[in-house]
Each structure stands twice: as C-alpha cells, then as structure tokens.
Design a protein that fits this description.
Strand content: over 45%
CATH architecture: Beta Barrel
CATH superfamily: Outer membrane protein transport protein (OMPP1/FadL/TodX)
Number of strands: 19
Order of helices and strands: HEEHEEEEEEEEEEHEEHEEEEE
Distance between the termini: 14 Å
Helix content: under 10%
Number of helices: 4
CATH class: Mainly Beta
Strand order of the largest sheet: 3-5-6-8-9-10-11-13-14-15-16-17-18-19
CATH topology: Porin
Largest sheet: 14 strands, antiparallel, barrel
Structural class: mainly beta
Number of domains: 1
Length: 413
C-alpha cells in the first residue's frame, strides 16, 4: 500500500511540476534516471535502475527489485536575435525570464521470478519552454509577453520475461499527459483556420497511449546487445489551441527506435553506446514547415523540425563495492533547419552535444545515493530565408545552452 501511494504521489507531483524543461535531444530528454543521465542517456543495452523501461522494457528483468527516486535541477539558457527586419523587430531577445526548473521522477521494478519481472516508471520529456519579457513578435502586431510551455509526463508500466537463457524481451504501455500554453502570438489570429484559438488561452491538456517493445541479449560472455521501439503516441487535441497546431490542435508524440551495446571491457569497466532515431517530421504540427497552409488546418504550418539521429557513448567504472563512477557524451543531429528559425524562437531546442559525469555511493543501510551533472554547450542556428517578406524579411537566429544537476536515491526490495 505504501508503494502504491508513493507511485501515485510521484505521478501527481510530476503532472504539476515544470517538466517542459529538460536536457534535450530536440524536446526529448537525453536520458531517464540519474544513472542514465550520468552516461549521457545510454540505456538500451545498459539497464541500471527502475527507469529501464523508459527506453527498453526488456531491461526491467535485469535490475532486480528496487525503487528509484530522482530530482533534477535544470537550467537552460535560450534566446534569439533578429536582424535586417523591415518592420523594426531587430534586437536581442532573452527567453530566460524563468531560469530554473525542478523535475521529479520515480522508477520501480519487481522481480517476480528468475524469468519474469514487472515495473513502472514515471518521467517526463520537454524542451519547449521559453519565457520572453520582451516579445520578439511585437513589431509584427503581437501584444504582451511571449512564451511557450509544454509539459509531457509519462507513466510506463512494463513487463519482461526470459524466453531463452541470456535473452529477455519486454513490452510496456505508456500513458502520456500533455499540458500546453502559449502567449504573445496574437499576430497569427489572421492566419488561422480557427480565429480565437491561437494564443493566450491559458493551459490546455491532452492525453494518449502508446506501446514500447524491446529485446536484450547476452550474445557473448562480455557483450550485450539491445534493441527497442516506441510507437507514436496518438494524443487528443488541444481544443483551446486548435487554431495553432495542424489538424485542429493535434500534437502527437513521435515514434522512436534504437539499438545499443554494452561491453564488459574489464571486471570493473563497462563501455556502452546507443543509436536512437526520433521521428519528429512524422508529426505534422512539429514537422510541417512554417510556410505551410493556414494554421490549424490539415497540412497547416508547423515548426518545421527534421527527424534526428542520436549517438550516445558512456562508461561505467565500479571503483569498489560501494562507489561507481560514470561518464558519457552524446551528439544529436540538428532538428531545426535554418529556414525555420522564426517560429522556433518559441522553441529553440537546438543544442547538439551533451557531456555528463556521475557517481553512485552505497550507504551502510543498503540504500544508494546517485549524482549526475550534464552540460550542453551553446549552439547557434543562424536563419537563412527565415522571415517571410510579408513579415518584413531579415533573419532570426536561435541559441541555447543547458546545464543540469541530478540527485537520486535508490533501495533494493
């Protein structure tokens, strides 16, 4: 009963906390769980805790019975520069009126038998969060402060079993909850199929379901391989913003898939890597170009994001029975084309590299503390043909950098 109450409490807390801001590959988190973040998100063939199912549900069978709690202090730096605009929009704009974000998460796994395990993970995505005191779209006719706030929370129950020695397969259902608001875009009211449903409508929410499948195999004594796939999550529409998002308020969550390996290089050292694909362009509200049809219509304008691939590398070193050290690096393709930077002033998810360090220390009472730090250096995307002539031309340039400090506590059951 206490465990069920803890899971429910963490889920409710997550729904209300600012999960829209998280270290990002586009707007997907670069890792789930403090241990994974310590190795830059590597996890497909390297399950380390109760968050394994967030990436590969087959890993639920490899982590034993445990509870993992985590909290992340995330600090993004995002903004934009406009130059050469005939309507007077030129200037430097900071989207950092809100600087710091606290992000909770919870993972649980239960080994029912040597060949069967189940669990649940509660975690978030994000990256679409900006907060401009000075509205970059004011010169075009917009009023008030500008910004976007997207929260995505996932609750993923999973099951994994061993069909043959050395191999596990897993499946999970994912319930997703989204909460969204945007301000300062009143200029777009004349460009939508649904006037009055574009900007400054407060928060709206949507829900949906998806499926995750995964495999994990010990193919050699010192080599483990993994593969995973997450379906596209078909979400209900944002009715208050049906004039902004393509298809009358549609904002589905893209499918992802990937492969990974973990190599036991020595008794103490494990080296691992993942390759992951995120299909942003398949969701029209995300992938349609900003020069598309009327906002909110079928085939309407969107953020113009590309599909991306992510490569992640990580190392785990067991210094002794109590102390484990971690390090990692990852690189993602740029989701935002240079021609699409104007609309993405609201969502400059342009960072590409993540560098992480982490450690875990077991206490005398059996629990374990984990710590991780992530840094994503500043990336700038300079516009090229990004501001249409009917908006006065010129170019919008985006920039973003990120830091995150993560703390977790785990105990075996």
């Amino acid at each position: 009963m206490n465990l069920r109450k803890s899971i429910m409490a963490a889920s409710l807390a997550a729904l209300g906390w600012p999960l829209a801001a998280h270290a990002t590959n586009g707007y997907f988190s670069h890792g789930y769980g403090v241990r994974s973040i310590g190795v830059a998100g590597v996890s497909i063939a390297l399950p380390q805790d109760g968050f394994a199912a967030a990436t590969n549900p087959a890993g639920t069978l490899s982590v034993g019975s445990r509870v993992d709690l985590g909290v992340h202090l995330f600090r993004p730096d995002r903004g934009a520069v406009i130059r050469g605009n005939g309507f007077g929009a030129d200037g430097d704009y900071s989207g950092n009126r809100t600087h710091n974000f606290l992000i909770p998460e919870l993972g649980y796994a239960r080994q029912a038998s040597p060949d069967l395990a189940w669990g649940v993970a509660v975690y978030g995505n994000g990256g679409m969060n900006t907060d401009y005191d000075r509205n970059p779209f004011a010169a075009f006719g917009s009023r008030g402060k500008a910004g976007i706030d997207l929260k995505q929370v996932f609750v993923t129950p999973s099951v994994a079993f061993r069909p043959a020695p050395g191999h596990s397969v897993g499946a999970a259902l994912t319930f997703a909850y989204q909460r969204f608001a945007v301000t300062g875009l009143s200029v777009l009211e004349g460009m939508t199929a649904y006037p009055g449903a574009v900007s400054d409508r407060g928060h709206d929410s949507s829900t949906g379901w998806g499926v995750k499948l995964g495999w994990l195999g010990q193919v050699l004594p010192d080599l483990r391989l993994g593969a995973s796939w997450s379906s596209r999550l078909e979400m209900s529409e944002f009715e208050r913003y049906k004039g902004l998002f393509e298809g009358g308020g549609g904002f589905d969550i893209p499918a992802t898939y990937g492969v990974g390996f973990a190599w036991q290089a020595s008794r103490a050292l494990t080296l691992a890597a993942d390759w992951q694909r995120i299909e942003y362009n398949s969701v029209k509200s995300v992938g349609s170009p900003q020069t598309g049809g009327a906002l909110g219509s079928d085939g309407g304008a969107g953020f113009g994001w590309n599909n991306v691939s992510v490569v992640k590398l990580g190392a785990v070193y067991a210094h002794d029975d109590r102390l484990t050290l971690r390090a990692g690096a990852s690189r993602v393709q740029q989701p935002v084309p240079a021609s699409q930077t104007l609309f993405n002033v609201l969502a400059p998810g342009v960072v590409r590299n993540h560098y992480s360090l982490g450690a875990s220390l077991k206490g005398a009472g059996g629990g374990e503390w984990s710590l991780a730090y992530m840094y994503a250096p500043k990336v700038t995307v300079s516009g090229s043909g990004s501001i249409p002539a009917n908006f006065g031309g010129g170019e919008a340039t985006l920039h973003m950098r990120e830091q995150m400090l993560s703390v977790g506590y785990s105990w075996a059951l």
